[in-house]
Design a protein that fits this description.
With 338 residues, the chain is an alpha/beta fold. The protein has helices at residues 12-23, 52-59, 75-85, 122-141, 170-177, 197-207, 228-239, 250-260, 264-272, 281-286, 296-309, 318-336, and strands at 3-7, 27-32, 43-46, 66-69, 92-95, 109-110, 145-150, 152-154, 182-185, 191-196, 217-220, 225-227, 245-248, 277-278. The mean pLDDT is 96.
C-alpha cells in the first residue's frame, strides 16, 4: 500500500484529494493543527508545519511515497519542506496556482509552457519563486518535485465568484436573493474556467506515485469554459431569481478596493479579469482518467443546496454590502451625467 502525507488536508482541494485517496486504498496521513476533523481511516499528525523542529520530531524516521504541500505560499515554506522531506519521500507535490501565468498572456489558450509572470499579485509572484526554487533543487539535487497549478476550484461548501468581500460569497448570494444589483467585473464577457473539487482530485491523485510526473508541472482544471456573465446567470437561475448585473471595470474596482481594503488589483487584474482557456492535454496524457464530470450548473446547485440549508455557511458581510452600494451608486451617477 502506498503512503501519502497531506500537509493541510481540510481545505477545498485537499479534502477531495484525501477522500479520493481513501477510495483508492492509499495509507493517508495528514499533518495539520487539528482544528478540523478528518475522515475515518486517516492518520493525523497534529503539528504546525511552520514549527520545523516539532514537525521533524513527530515525523521521526517515517518515509512516504508522496508528500503533498497544500499550505506553502512563500519560498521559505518550500525551503523548509526540502529540509524536512529530502530523502524521506519519493515525490513531493507542490500546489502552485494558475494565477502564476503571465497576465495577460500572449494568447488566451494556456499551457504549462506559458510564461510565468504576474505584475499585479504578490501571491502569484511568491508561487512563481517557490516553483523556481523547487525546480532548481530537482535539477541540482534530484529532489523529486511535481508542480500542480490549479485554477478556480470549488466544492459544495463554496459558491465561486469574482467580486466578493473578506467574509466570502454569502453577501453576494443574499443580494441576488433580495433582487439587488451585484457587481460583475468588466463587461462580463471574459472567459473563465471553474473546476469542481472531485474532478480536480482525479487529476491530482493520478499524478501521485506517477514516475512521469517527476520534474514536471501540470495545470489541473476542468474543460468547461464560461463567461463571467454566464457564471453569474447560472447562479441566479439556480436560485430562481433574475440577475441584476452591474458591470464595473476591473481598473475601477481595483482603485475603489484599495480605498476600502479589498485587493481587487490582485484577484482581478492579476487573475480573473483575463480570459483564459486551459489546454489540459499534457495532464490527460499522463492521467487518462481526467475529465469533467460535474458541470458548473450541476456543481453550483449542489453548493447552493448545502449553503441554503446550513445557516452557519451564511456569513453576513455588511461592510462589503455598503461597498457594493457605493460603487453602484457612483457608477449610476456618472452614467447619468453622460
Amino acid at each position: 500500500m502506498k503512503k501519502a502525507l497531506i500537509i493541510g488536508g481540510t481545505g477545498t482541494i485537499s479534502t477531495a484529494v484525501v477522500n479520493s485517496l481513501l477510495r483508492q486504498d492509499w495509507e493517508v496521513w495528514v499533518l495539520n493543527r487539528g482544528n478540523r476533523p478528518v475522515p475515518q481511516g486517516v492518520h493525523q499528525i497534529v503539528a504546525d508545519i511552520h514549527q520545523e523542529e516539532e514537525v521533524s520530531r513527530k515525523i521521526g524516521e517515517m518515509t512516504f511515497d508522496t508528500v503533498c504541500e497544500f499550505t506553502g505560499f512563500v519560498v521559505e515554506d518550500v525551503k523548509r519542506d526540502v529540509r524536512l522531506f529530502a530523502g524521506k519521500t519519493k515525490q513531493y507535490i507542490y500546489i502552485s496556482s494558475a494565477s502564476a501565468y503571465h497576465k495577460p498572456a500572449a494568447g488566451y489558450i494556456i499551457t504549462e509552457g506559458t510564461t510565468l509572470a504576474n505584475p499585479h499579485w504578490q501571491y502569484s509572484r511568491d508561487k512563481i519563486a517557490s516553483e523556481a526554487y523547487l525546480m532548481e533543487k530537482y535539477r541540482t539535487e534530484g529532489f523529486p518535485v511535481t508542480i500542480v497549478r490549479p485554477s478556480h476550484t470549488y466544492d459544495e461548501r463554496h459558491i465561486p465568484l469574482a467580486v466578493h468581500g473578506k467574509k466570502g460569497f454569502w453577501q453576494v448570494i443574499r443580494r441576488m436573493l433580495d433582487q439587488r444589483p451585484v457587481i460583475i467585473h468588466g463587461d462580463g464577457s471574459s472567459l473563465w474556467t471553474l473546476t469542481f473539487n472531485r474532478d480536480f482530485a482525479t487529476g491530482f491523485t493520478g499524478l501521485m506515485g506517477n514516475r512521469h510526473a517527476i520534474g514536471e508541472a501540470f495545470q489541473i482544471t476542468g474543460d468547461e469554459t464560461l463567461t463571467w456573465d454566464q457564471i453569474y446567470q447560472t447562479i441566479a437561475d439556480a436560485l430562481g431569481v433574475p440577475l441584476r448585473a452591474c458591470h464595473v471595470s476591473s481598473d475601477y474596482l481595483a482603485k475603489a478596493g484599495d480605498k476600502y481594503g479589498y485587493d481587487f488589483g490582485g484577484s482581478l487584474l492579476g487573475d480573473k479579469a483575463v480570459s483564459v482557456v486551459f489546454d489540459n492535454s499534457k495532464l490527460k496524457r499522463v492521467v487518462p482518467d481526467m475529465c469533467t464530470t460535474v458541470r458548473f450548473d450541476q456543481g453550483v446547485r449542489m453548493a447552493l443546496d448545502r449553503v441554503l440549508s446550513h445557516p452557519e455557511c451564511q456569513i453576513p458581510d455588511p461592510e462589503f454590502d455598503v461597498f457594493c452600494d457605493r460603487v453602484i451608486a457612483a457608477l449610476e451617477a456618472s452614467m447619468a451625467q453622460v
